[in-house]
């Protein structure tokens, strides 16, 4: 089997990163929306609101573990946009990351619908509705509470996503707190959990355009119809735009208030720290340290070792 896997190995680094993002988001949404489906269709007898919080939190944790070594585990277009704005991720990859993040969420919604098809039909009496006592569209996408205005919902999502980015950047900032890289996914999951238990009542704390758009598109195609876009006073655009605004605001706040004021480190110590964490792309990317492995000033790599080996052979000859 090893020889078969070697033959099908994808050579394009960008494609590998995009597939990792797709699978990471898929894991996140399968666990998160799966928890919503279980709570909804069981009418709170097989879980409650905290079950949903845990589903999304642990889904985020394992989604990050799945993809962090390949793509940096953004799993969220708002995160990718913020890292591009901070100069820590190339702009040219932004549309590709976003597409595969949304696609992963779409596939995950389809998986949850397949797994819970009978339960959804039983709970809704065969009627796929967006609002009402037997509504099931909320299994897939977020919708506002009846009392919430669009403006208040927009502010809610800006604040929630801003807090998400502040905490994510803090977790990845090794000049602030030296967190073991292998614990970073768990801590990011805990950030999602605390946002859910403190900011989820208004509109379900989407915080992630891909998490909302992919499943919403699936529910539109799968039979819930155009109402998935018009419910809540045309709510659908808020979870797309507001998280991006909030992520940019949160990123700027953290950099201006914390990161920009770190004391200058000794160059050699900083390089040694980079070399120790080169395998953890998530920690490096969130800290803003994108190593150029082709640079003679970077950490040792296969290319440089190969050059040294070739040089040695030339001298021996």
TrEMBL record:
Protein name as catalogued: Aquaporin-10
Record InterPro entries: Aquaporin-like (IPR023271), MIP (IPR000425), MIP/Aquaporin (IPR050363), MIP_CS (IPR022357)
Biased composition (Basic and acidic residues): 304-317
GO cellular component, one term: basolateral plasma membrane
Main subcellular location of this protein, as a coarse class: membrane
Origin species: Anguilla japonica
Reaction equation(s) it catalyzes: H2O(in) = H2O(out); glycerol(in) = glycerol(out); urea(in) = urea(out)
Region feature Disordered, mapped onto this chain: 293-317
Transmembrane domains' residue ranges: 20-41, 47-66, 94-117, 150-171, 183-207, 234-257
MF (Gene Ontology): glycerol channel activity; urea transmembrane transporter activity; water channel activity
Family of the protein in this entry: Belongs to the MIP/aquaporin (TC 1.A.8) family.
Gene3D superfamilies listed in its UniProt record: Glycerol uptake facilitator protein
Keyword Transport: yes
Keyword annotations from UniProtKB, A to Z: Membrane, Transmembrane, Transmembrane helix, Transport
Compartments (UniProt record): Membrane
Membrane topology: Multi-pass membrane protein
Pfam families named in the record: MIP
